[in-house]
Design a protein that fits this description.
alpha/beta
Length: about 110
């Protein structure tokens, strides 16, 4: 699995790099809190409509034991997406670092 660190992701966002930052969780979680600039993809039909096979994609979920981003990562790679990375720390790690989030409230992984 091709991973990206929190620091590298933050640097990409700060530079304004052209990539798709994807939160792979349900709409309710996205509305609660997401990394600024993210799009929400909660099913693979959406992925195939919103992403191009050659897009640079960084995918994340809650982090920790959340299975959403690993599953989405494997789906994308197995369906021909060529430039996919996973931010394993997810929204929980992002918030713990004190980085900004958008949404209605902080996400607390249970």
């Amino acid at each position: 699995m091709n991973l990206i660190s929190r620091e590298e992701l933050k640097a990409k966002l700060d530079r304004g790099d052209d990539f798709k930052l994807v939160m792979a969780m349900g709409e309710w979680a996205f509305k609660m809190a997401h990394i600024p600039g993210s799009i929400n993809i909660s099913n693979m039909d959406q992925a195939e409509r919103l992403l191009a096979l050659d897009d640079e994609i960084v995918i994340y979920c809650a982090g920790g034991s959340c299975p959403a981003s690993p599953a989405a990562y494997h789906y994308l790679v197995s369906h021909g997406f060529t430039n996919v990375r996973r931010y394993a720390g997810g929204i929980t790690d992002w918030q713990e670092a004190g980085y900004p989030v958008e949404g209605d409230e902080e996400f607390n992984e249970s």
